[in-house]
Structure formats: structure tokens, C-alpha cells
Amino acid sequence: MGWPVELHEGPVGLRPLHARDLRAWSEVRQRSESWLRPWEATPPPPADPYTMSFRQMVRLHAAQGRADESLPWAVTYHGRLCGQLNVSNIIWGSARMGTVGYWLDVDLAGRGIMPTAVALGVDYCFFVAGLHRLEVNIRPENRASLRVVEKLGFREEGLRPKLLHIDGEWRDHRSFALTAEDVPEGLLRRWRSSRLAP
């Protein structure tokens, strides 16, 4: 897929996460901790006491990107790191699919940053990388994340009981998806048009 990849749309950017991002990443995560905690993946019991360092996470993301296993991006706004977008669990062969996950700085929510970032990533996945289907799984209570897929027109495909271990429990998730055929003109173009509509 040609990792590393950088993408931009106005003030919103996607780029690889770097070791030098530690301070900015830590500040955003600390500021947004209580807002993000209810939606964060947690290891199920028996919990592994090992915690990955930031540098190890950056190295792992880079290796997965080079191996075409995921597309891990830092999200930027006016050049400042403000979140992450990851297309993970990529399956090739006859499936050509992946799973989209994202988080954003609480102070920047509601500005259209994450829908723009997701649209950028989806278009890259469909029209450059060659994936066919992307899905997003969101807890039913996570209004902010639900608004992203609603704004972008992802199709809801149902409830997946106890799908992921989140915030200490196995949690139900609503599942949403898009295929390349759903957005022949590109998701970013559709998102731009929806923002201009009266």
C-alpha cells in the first residue's frame, strides 16, 4: 500500500505517528482521558500486566503499516496532533476489508475534523490501497462517534453483542459499513457536498 502515507484536506491531515509526538500525544490523551475512557479497549481477564510504551506503539504501527496489516494515522488540525485514525484488521484475498477506529481531542469535537479524517482515510483505502469494504463498530452510547458515521452516510448493519472488551467489560456495538460501490464519487467529495448543502 506504499506506507507511510500522508493525506490532507484543508486544515485536517493524516500522517504517521512519530516518536517525537510523545509530548503532544500525551497532552491530548491526558486532557481527553475522562471523555475517551468509556470507549477505550481494555484487555480482558486475565489481564496482561505489560503496558506498551508510546515508542513501542509507534514502532508497532509503522511495522503493521509496512506489512499492509493496518493503516495507522495521527490526525492533525492546522498541523497540531489532535487524535488518531486506524484502519486495522485488514484482510486481503477475496475479502479486502478492514475496520476503522478513531479518537479525537475533546477540545476539538464538533468541528468536522473526524468526519473529514475518516473520509480521507476511506478514499485512500478504496481508491489507492484497493480495499473493498470498511466497517466501524461503535458502542450504542457513544454519541460523538455515532455522529461521525451518520454524517458520512455509513450503512448500519445491526447490533453485535459483546463484540469488544471496552472499559473493563464485554460491550455490545452497533456495526456500520461502506463498500467501494457505495461511494463511487469518493466519500470525501460526498462529505464536502453535504457540508455545502443548505
List the helices and strands and how they pair.
Layout: E1 7-9, E2 12-15, H1 22-31, H2 33-36, H3 54-66, E3 71-77, E4 80-91, E5 97-104, H4 113-129, E6 133-138, H5 143-152, E7 155-166, E8 169-179, H6 187-196
Parallel strand pairs: 5-6
Antiparallel strand pairs: 1-2, 2-3, 3-4, 4-5, 6-8, 7-8
Helix pairs in contact: 4-5, 4-6
Question: In words, what does this structure look like?
Answer:
This is GNAT family N-acetyltransferase. It comes from Jiangella anatolica. GO terms for molecular function: protein-N-terminal-alanine acetyltransferase activity. Belongs to the acetyltransferase family. RimJ subfamily. The chain is α+β, with helices and mostly antiparallel strands and 198 residues long. The chain has one domain: 3-Layer(aba) Sandwich (Aminopeptidase). The protein contains 6 helices and 8 strands. The chain has an 8-stranded mixed beta sheet, sandwiched between helices. Helix 4 (113-129) crosses helix 5.
Quick structural overview:
The protein has six helices and eight strands; from the N terminus they run ββαααβββαβαββα.
Strand-pairing-aware structural class = alpha+beta
Which term fits the overall shape?
globular
Straight-line distance between termini: 38 Å
The CATH homologous superfamily is termed: Gcn5-related N-acetyltransferase (GNAT)
User: Order of strands across the widest beta sheet?
Assistant: 1-2-3-4-5-6-8-7
Q: Unreliable stretches, pLDDT < 50, 5 or more residues?
A: none
Secondary structure: number of strands: 8
- CATH class, anyone? Alpha Beta
What is the succession of H and E elements? EEHHHEEEHEHEEH
From the 3D structure, determine the CATH topology: Aminopeptidase
The profile of the biggest β sheet is: 8 strands, mixed
Number of helices: 6
Count of spatially separate domains? 1
Q: Which CATH architecture is right?
A: 3-Layer(aba) Sandwich
- β content, as a range? 25-35%
For the CA atoms, what is the radius of gyration? Answer: 16 Å
Helix percent reads: 25-40%
Mean pLDDT: 94
Family: Belongs to the acetyltransferase family. RimJ subfamily.
Protein name: GNAT family N-acetyltransferase
Keywords: Acyltransferase, Transferase
GO cellular component, one term: cytoplasm
